[in-house]
Amino acid sequence: MPARRKPTSSSFSFTRRRFLQGVAAGTAAAVVAPELGRAQLQIDEEISGQPRVAIRLRVNGRSYRLSVEPRWTLLDVLRNRLDLTGTKRVCDRGECGACTVLRDGKPVYSCLTLAVDAQDSDLETIEGLSADGRLHPLQEAFVRHDALQCGFCTPGMVMASKALLDRNPQPSLDDIKEGLCGNLCKCGTYTKIFRAVQDAAQTLRRS
Ligand code: FES
Ligand code: FES
Protein backbone atom coordinates (compact mmCIF):
# COMPACT_ATOMS: atom_id res chain seq x y z
CA MET A 1 0.00 0.00 0.00
CA PRO A 2 1.41 3.45 -0.85
CA ALA A 3 2.80 5.36 2.12
CA ARG A 4 0.50 7.93 3.60
CA ARG A 5 1.63 11.47 3.06
CA LYS A 6 0.79 14.26 5.47
CA PRO A 7 -0.99 17.07 3.59
CA THR A 8 0.81 20.40 3.61
CA SER A 9 -0.87 23.67 4.50
CA SER A 10 -0.63 24.71 0.84
CA SER A 11 -2.89 21.77 0.06
CA PHE A 12 -5.81 23.78 1.30
CA SER A 13 -5.22 26.93 -0.75
CA PHE A 14 -7.33 26.24 -3.80
CA THR A 15 -9.65 28.53 -5.67
CA ARG A 16 -13.41 28.26 -6.06
CA ARG A 17 -12.91 27.40 -9.75
CA ARG A 18 -10.59 24.50 -8.88
CA PHE A 19 -13.01 23.34 -6.21
CA LEU A 20 -15.85 23.18 -8.74
CA GLN A 21 -13.58 21.46 -11.28
CA GLY A 22 -12.70 18.91 -8.66
CA VAL A 23 -16.30 18.26 -7.64
CA ALA A 24 -17.30 17.76 -11.26
CA ALA A 25 -14.36 15.48 -11.97
CA GLY A 26 -14.86 13.58 -8.73
CA THR A 27 -18.49 12.89 -9.60
CA ALA A 28 -17.52 11.69 -13.05
CA ALA A 29 -14.88 9.40 -11.56
CA ALA A 30 -17.60 7.48 -9.78
CA VAL A 31 -19.27 6.34 -12.98
CA VAL A 32 -16.79 6.37 -15.83
CA ALA A 33 -13.22 5.34 -16.33
CA PRO A 34 -11.22 8.34 -17.57
CA GLU A 35 -7.43 8.36 -17.36
CA LEU A 36 -6.56 9.69 -13.92
CA GLY A 37 -3.61 12.00 -14.21
CA ARG A 38 -1.49 13.45 -11.43
CA ALA A 39 -3.38 16.75 -11.80
CA GLN A 40 -6.70 15.12 -10.95
CA LEU A 41 -5.22 13.37 -7.94
CA GLN A 42 -3.79 16.70 -6.79
CA ILE A 43 -7.18 18.40 -7.05
CA ASP A 44 -8.83 15.59 -5.10
CA GLU A 45 -6.11 15.81 -2.44
CA GLU A 46 -6.56 19.55 -2.16
CA ILE A 47 -10.29 19.19 -1.68
CA SER A 48 -10.15 16.42 0.89
CA GLY A 49 -6.86 17.39 2.55
CA GLN A 50 -5.85 13.74 2.39
CA PRO A 51 -3.44 11.88 0.11
CA ARG A 52 -5.02 10.09 -2.83
CA VAL A 53 -3.92 7.24 -5.04
CA ALA A 54 -5.20 6.21 -8.46
CA ILE A 55 -6.67 2.74 -8.60
CA ARG A 56 -8.56 0.59 -11.04
CA LEU A 57 -11.36 -1.72 -9.89
CA ARG A 58 -13.22 -4.36 -11.89
CA VAL A 59 -16.74 -4.66 -10.52
CA ASN A 60 -19.45 -6.79 -12.11
CA GLY A 61 -17.42 -6.97 -15.32
CA ARG A 62 -16.97 -3.22 -15.60
CA SER A 63 -13.71 -1.35 -15.10
CA TYR A 64 -13.49 1.84 -13.04
CA ARG A 65 -10.59 4.23 -12.51
CA LEU A 66 -10.84 6.13 -9.27
CA SER A 67 -8.83 8.33 -6.98
CA VAL A 68 -9.16 7.07 -3.41
CA GLU A 69 -7.67 7.67 -0.02
CA PRO A 70 -5.47 4.67 0.88
CA ARG A 71 -7.51 4.11 4.06
CA TRP A 72 -10.85 3.72 2.25
CA THR A 73 -12.37 0.28 2.39
CA LEU A 74 -13.83 -1.52 -0.58
CA LEU A 75 -17.22 -1.08 1.10
CA ASP A 76 -16.71 2.72 1.22
CA VAL A 77 -15.81 2.84 -2.45
CA LEU A 78 -18.61 0.54 -3.62
CA ARG A 79 -21.28 2.47 -1.74
CA ASN A 80 -19.99 6.05 -1.77
CA ARG A 81 -18.10 6.30 -5.07
CA LEU A 82 -19.69 3.70 -7.33
CA ASP A 83 -23.21 4.06 -5.94
CA LEU A 84 -23.50 0.27 -5.56
CA THR A 85 -25.49 0.49 -2.36
CA GLY A 86 -26.78 -3.09 -2.45
CA THR A 87 -23.77 -4.07 -0.37
CA LYS A 88 -24.73 -3.21 3.20
CA ARG A 89 -22.78 -1.65 6.04
CA VAL A 90 -23.98 -3.05 9.36
CA CYS A 91 -21.21 -3.75 11.90
CA ASP A 92 -18.36 -2.27 9.78
CA ARG A 93 -15.87 -4.46 11.66
CA GLY A 94 -15.95 -7.93 10.16
CA GLU A 95 -18.52 -9.56 12.39
CA CYS A 96 -21.86 -9.76 10.54
CA GLY A 97 -21.15 -10.50 6.86
CA ALA A 98 -23.71 -7.98 5.57
CA CYS A 99 -21.00 -6.44 3.39
CA THR A 100 -20.01 -9.73 1.71
CA VAL A 101 -18.95 -9.47 -1.93
CA LEU A 102 -17.11 -11.95 -4.12
CA ARG A 103 -13.48 -11.42 -4.87
CA ASP A 104 -12.28 -13.80 -7.57
CA GLY A 105 -15.25 -15.97 -6.68
CA LYS A 106 -14.54 -16.10 -2.95
CA PRO A 107 -16.65 -14.32 -0.32
CA VAL A 108 -14.87 -11.46 1.47
CA TYR A 109 -15.96 -8.83 3.93
CA SER A 110 -15.72 -5.59 1.98
CA CYS A 111 -15.59 -3.62 5.25
CA LEU A 112 -12.27 -5.33 6.03
CA THR A 113 -10.81 -5.04 2.53
CA LEU A 114 -8.94 -1.93 1.48
CA ALA A 115 -9.96 -0.65 -1.94
CA VAL A 116 -6.30 -0.33 -2.95
CA ASP A 117 -5.82 -4.04 -2.18
CA ALA A 118 -8.80 -5.08 -4.29
CA GLN A 119 -7.19 -4.06 -7.56
CA ASP A 120 -6.44 -6.83 -10.05
CA SER A 121 -9.38 -8.84 -8.69
CA ASP A 122 -12.71 -9.64 -10.26
CA LEU A 123 -15.28 -8.22 -7.86
CA GLU A 124 -18.92 -9.19 -7.85
CA THR A 125 -21.66 -7.46 -5.89
CA ILE A 126 -25.36 -8.18 -5.53
CA GLU A 127 -26.02 -5.75 -8.40
CA GLY A 128 -24.14 -8.08 -10.74
CA LEU A 129 -26.41 -11.09 -10.16
CA SER A 130 -29.51 -10.11 -12.08
CA ALA A 131 -29.30 -9.88 -15.84
CA ASP A 132 -31.70 -8.51 -18.45
CA GLY A 133 -34.16 -7.56 -15.72
CA ARG A 134 -34.29 -11.15 -14.39
CA LEU A 135 -33.35 -12.07 -10.85
CA HIS A 136 -30.75 -14.76 -10.21
CA PRO A 137 -32.30 -18.09 -9.07
CA LEU A 138 -30.91 -17.44 -5.59
CA GLN A 139 -32.68 -14.09 -5.40
CA GLU A 140 -35.91 -15.67 -6.68
CA ALA A 141 -35.64 -18.41 -4.06
CA PHE A 142 -35.11 -15.90 -1.25
CA VAL A 143 -38.29 -14.13 -2.35
CA ARG A 144 -40.24 -17.38 -2.82
CA HIS A 145 -39.30 -18.64 0.65
CA ASP A 146 -39.75 -15.26 2.32
CA ALA A 147 -36.17 -15.61 3.54
CA LEU A 148 -35.81 -12.07 4.81
CA GLN A 149 -37.34 -9.65 7.24
CA CYS A 150 -35.46 -6.34 7.50
CA GLY A 151 -33.26 -7.37 4.56
CA PHE A 152 -30.00 -5.94 5.85
CA CYS A 153 -28.25 -9.29 5.88
CA THR A 154 -29.79 -10.44 2.60
CA PRO A 155 -27.30 -9.19 -0.03
CA GLY A 156 -24.43 -10.69 1.98
CA MET A 157 -26.34 -13.94 2.48
CA VAL A 158 -27.07 -14.18 -1.24
CA MET A 159 -23.45 -13.49 -2.23
CA ALA A 160 -22.09 -16.03 0.27
CA SER A 161 -24.67 -18.54 -1.02
CA LYS A 162 -23.58 -17.90 -4.60
CA ALA A 163 -19.96 -18.59 -3.71
CA LEU A 164 -21.08 -21.82 -2.04
CA LEU A 165 -23.21 -23.03 -4.97
CA ASP A 166 -20.52 -22.11 -7.50
CA ARG A 167 -18.07 -24.46 -5.79
CA ASN A 168 -20.59 -27.03 -4.54
CA PRO A 169 -23.76 -27.32 -6.66
CA GLN A 170 -25.25 -30.02 -4.45
CA PRO A 171 -24.67 -28.90 -0.87
CA SER A 172 -26.02 -30.74 2.14
CA LEU A 173 -27.77 -28.78 4.87
CA ASP A 174 -24.54 -28.87 6.87
CA ASP A 175 -22.62 -27.57 3.85
CA ILE A 176 -25.05 -24.65 3.62
CA LYS A 177 -24.75 -23.89 7.32
CA GLU A 178 -20.97 -23.96 7.04
CA GLY A 179 -20.99 -21.86 3.85
CA LEU A 180 -23.06 -19.19 5.58
CA CYS A 181 -21.38 -19.37 8.98
CA GLY A 182 -19.76 -15.96 8.42
CA ASN A 183 -23.12 -14.26 7.89
CA LEU A 184 -25.41 -13.30 10.73
CA CYS A 185 -29.15 -12.58 10.51
CA LYS A 186 -30.35 -10.53 13.42
CA CYS A 187 -33.96 -11.25 12.43
CA GLY A 188 -33.34 -14.98 12.76
CA THR A 189 -34.58 -16.11 9.34
CA TYR A 190 -31.97 -18.87 9.10
CA THR A 191 -34.42 -21.72 8.48
CA LYS A 192 -35.96 -19.96 5.50
CA ILE A 193 -32.58 -18.89 4.20
CA PHE A 194 -31.33 -22.49 4.26
CA ARG A 195 -34.48 -23.66 2.45
CA ALA A 196 -34.03 -20.94 -0.17
CA VAL A 197 -30.44 -22.01 -0.83
CA GLN A 198 -31.48 -25.67 -1.16
CA ASP A 199 -34.24 -24.66 -3.57
CA ALA A 200 -31.91 -22.45 -5.64
CA ALA A 201 -29.36 -25.27 -5.80
CA GLN A 202 -32.02 -27.55 -7.30
CA THR A 203 -33.08 -24.89 -9.81
CA LEU A 204 -29.50 -24.23 -10.85
CA ARG A 205 -28.78 -27.95 -11.27
CA ARG A 206 -31.88 -28.34 -13.46
CA SER A 207 -30.85 -25.42 -15.65
S1 FES B 1 -20.45 -4.76 7.75
FE1 FES B 1 -18.75 -5.95 7.17
S2 FES B 1 -18.84 -7.71 8.41
FE2 FES B 1 -20.46 -6.45 9.15
S1 FES C 1 -33.44 -10.28 7.60
FE1 FES C 1 -32.97 -8.80 9.12
S2 FES C 1 -30.89 -9.25 9.64
FE2 FES C 1 -31.47 -10.86 8.34
Task: Provide a concise account of the structure shown.
By secondary structure, this protein is of the alpha+beta class. The chain contains 7 helices and 5 strands; from the N terminus they run ααββαβββαααα.
Description:
- This protein is of the alpha+beta class and 207 residues long.
- The protein has 2 domains: 9-128, Ubiquitin-like (UB roll), CATH 3.10.20; 137-206, DNA polymerase, domain 1, CATH 1.10.150.120.
- The protein has helices at residues 16-29, 38-48, 74-81, 137-144, 154-167, 173-179, 190-206, and strands at residues 53-59, 62-68, 100-103, 106-109, 122-124.
- It has a 5-stranded mixed beta sheet, with helices on both faces.
- Strand 3 (100-103) and strand 4 (106-109) form a beta hairpin.
- Helix 1 (16-29) packs across helix 2 (38-48).
- Mean pLDDT is 86; it is low at 1-33.
- Residues 89-92, 94-99, 109, 111 line the site of one FE2/S2 (inorganic) cluster.
